[in-house]
Amino acid sequence: MYDNGDEYQPDSGEEVRGVARGRASDAARMRVAVVVLLGVSACTGLVFPLVWGPTSNARGLAAIVGDSFGLAAGAVALSVVAWGAGRLWSRSAREKLPEPPVRYGPVPGLGPAQTEFVVRKWIGDSAPTATLLHLAEQSVVRLTLVDDGLWQIEGIGTPQRWRRIDAISRVLADHLGIRSPGGVFVADGSPISGCAVREGMRAMSDECRSWAARDDLLVPSVRTWIGRAMACLCTVLAALGFLGVLGPTILGVPFVAFVIGALGVFAAGTGLRHTPTGRHVWAGAAGFERVLSGRSTTIGSAAVRECFLAAVPYAFAFGVADRWSAQYRRVTGRAAPHPDWYPSTALYDDEAGLQWAAKPHN
Predict the structure, then answer these.
(1) Where does the pLDDT of residue 60 fall: very low under 50, low under 70, confident under 90, or very high at 90 and above?
(2) 31 and 263 in contact (C-beta within 8 Å)?
C-alpha cells in the first residue's frame, strides 16, 4: 500500500533534525548529580579553603592559588586544555549519520516504539500513547471515551491477530492487562494509571534494548563509556582538589573543566552505536520520520487516507502529530482525516485526549 522506494529528496530548507528534544531520566540524573557534587565541593573548598591536606595551614589567597604564580598559570592553562579535550570527547560520542532517504511508510514489522528507538536509541513519554493508538489501528484493542478525560482501553484481539503485532507493543499490552479479550485498562490521567503506564514504558524500553542487541542493530560504544568513566574519575579528583586534599584548591579546576566539557557523553543514546545492519534499518525508520516531521516536500502514498491514518501512531511516537496533520493539509488541500478507531475529535491535541489520560507518571 505504501510507496517506499527510498526516493531521495534534498532537504526542504526547514529546520533539520537536531538533538532529540528530551533526555533519558537516568542520564539527566547523572548530570545533575555531577553538577551538584562539583558545586558543593567548589563552595566548600573556596569558602573554607583547606580543611585538611598537605597545605592545610594556608589561609586566604594562598590557600586557593598557592604561593607560586607559575602553579596558578599552569592550572588555568591546563583547564583550557582539559575543557577542550572534554568537548572533543563529547562530540565524538555523538554518532554521525547522513540525511536519510525519504520513506513514505513504516519499516515492515516495526511498531512505533521500535521505530523511535532505532532512530533515537531511546523512547520518550509519547511511546505508550503511540503504541495504544497503533494497537487500536490494528484492531486488537478498543478505545472508549467514557467521560471527559476518562478512557477505557479494552483488549479485543484474537491470539492470531496478536501474533502479527510487534513484540514491544505486546509488552505494553501485557503490563496493562489488555492482551486478552475482555481485559480492560482505565486511563484517566491520575497518578495510579500514570504509574502503571510508566512501568509499562520501562518494560518497553528494556525490551527495545534487548531486541536491538538480539537483532544486531545497536552495540555499546566503547569510546563513550571510557569518556563516562573518565568524567566520573575527574569528578572525584575535582572534589578532592576543591577540598584541598591535593594542594591549593585551584588544582581542582582542570578536572572540573574536563567534566563540564565532557557532559555530552551522558546524553541519551550516546552509549550505543548502529551496526551495519542497524544503519540499514535506521535509514528506513529515519526516512519515515523525515516525512512525518514535514522535512520532505511530499508525502507520497501517505496521502491515501488509510496510509495517513496508519502513520498517525508513529507521528505521536516522534512528537510530530500536529506537523503530520498540517503536512497532509498542505499537500492535499483537505483537513486531516479522522480515524474510526479514535472516539474523540482531539486526536492531534497534545493537551487533551488519550495522550493526556495515558501520560506516564513517575
Answers:
(1) low
(2) yes
Nearest 10 degrees: Cα torsion 269, 272, 276, 277 = -80
Q: What is the DSSP letter of 141?
A: E
Q: Which amino acid is present at 126?
A: S
- How far apart (Å, rounded) are the C-alpha atoms in residues 113 and 215? 16
User: For 271, left (φ over 0), alpha (ψ -120 to 50), or beta?
Assistant: alpha
* Domains identified in the chain, total number: 2
Whether residue 54 sits in one domain with residue 195: no
Cα–Cα dist 241/44, whole Å: 11
Q: Which region, left, alpha or beta, applies to residue 294 given φ > 0 means left and ψ of -120 to 50 means alpha?
A: left
Closest CA to 206 of 16, 56, 50, 26: 26
326-354 residue pLDDT tens: 888 888 888 888 899 998 877 877 666 78
Q: Give me the phi and psi of 342, to 5 degrees please.
A: -120, 110
Verify that 83 and 126 share a domain, yes or no.
no
Does residue 78 sit in the same domain as residue 116?
A: no
Provide φ and ψ at 232, rounded to 5°: -65, -40
SS3 300: helix
pLDDT digits over 302-322, tens only?
778 888 999 999 999 999 998
Q: Please check whether residue 97 is in contact with residue 269, taking contact to mean a CB–CB distance below 8 angstroms.
A: no
Which helix (H) or strand (E) segment holds residue 145: the answer is: strand 141-147
| DSSP element (H, E) containing 209 | helix 191-214
